[in-house]
């Protein structure tokens, strides 16, 4: 299962959205997504660069908003070797299938 599918939790799961990389839980899919963006930029000095247009942000949530407002599916740059999906961030590929 990839990151995109983790954003939509079945109703019986409640409000817990778990990061499959570090097991931290969040109360919304958007917060989980922002957290996964932070995983993508660990050790990069606290800045978040758009993988498509290289605009730099100081907050992961601002990069998240930018990607959804400025870029579409065709801009995703990482290909999954297991399926036809494409992703904006390499960490999305590292989320194990469940």
UniProtKB/TrEMBL annotation:
<dbReference type="InterPro" id="IPR036236">
    <property type="entry name" value="Znf_C2H2_sf"/>
</dbReference>
<keyword id="KW-0677">Repeat</keyword>
<feature type="domain" description="C2H2-type">
    <location>
        <begin position="17"/>
        <end position="44"/>
    </location>
</feature>
<dbReference type="Pfam" id="PF00096">
    <property type="entry name" value="zf-C2H2"/>
</dbReference>
<protein>
    <recommendedName>
        <fullName>C2H2-type domain-containing protein</fullName>
    </recommendedName>
</protein>
<keyword id="KW-0862">Zinc</keyword>
<dbReference type="InterPro" id="IPR013087">
    <property type="entry name" value="Znf_C2H2_type"/>
</dbReference>
<keyword id="KW-0479">Metal-binding</keyword>
<dbReference type="GO" id="GO:0008270">
    <property type="term" value="F:zinc ion binding"/>
</dbReference>
<keyword id="KW-0863">Zinc-finger</keyword>
<feature type="domain" description="C2H2-type">
    <location>
        <begin position="48"/>
        <end position="76"/>
    </location>
</feature>
């Amino acid at each position: 299962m990839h990151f995109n599918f983790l954003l939509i939790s079945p109703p019986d799961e409640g409000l817990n959205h778990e990061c499959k990389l570090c097991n931290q839980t969040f109360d919304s899919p958007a917060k989980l997504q922002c957290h996964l963006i932070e995983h993508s930029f660990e050790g990069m000095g606290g800045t978040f660069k758009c993988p498509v247009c290289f605009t730099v942000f100081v907050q992961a949530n601002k990069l998240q908003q930018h990607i959804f407002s400025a870029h579409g599916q065709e801009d995703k740059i990482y290909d999954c070797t297991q399926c036809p999906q494409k992703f904006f961030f390499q960490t999305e590929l590292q989320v194990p299938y469940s």
